[in-house]
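[Q] Does anyone have a clean structure-token version of this?
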Amino acid sequence: MYVHKGWRVSGIKPGLLEEAKQAHGRLCQMAQKAGGKPPEPFDETAWLRTAKLTAVRSKPYILQEAALQCKELAIKAGWLDVQIQEVRKVVA
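[A] Here you go.
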């Protein structure tokens, strides 16, 4: 049995994708200077698939409508892959 604890909005913070691209560029430059084989080109879809999601707000929302509104605002603010998840607790 589960107890409903609210709705959590999470996604990828604005700017993290650009930071990952820059880090990959620095890695390519270092490999080129060292004379090694350059790494594979940056795969944005693979990075988005494996990126860690961050909570938009630390406390979960009580109402699903509030979470939906937060999701819309987060997307407008530049968050990527924004999701709403139900927070539930298992009760014995």
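[Q] Thanks! Anything notable?
[A] The chain is about 40% helix and 25% strand.
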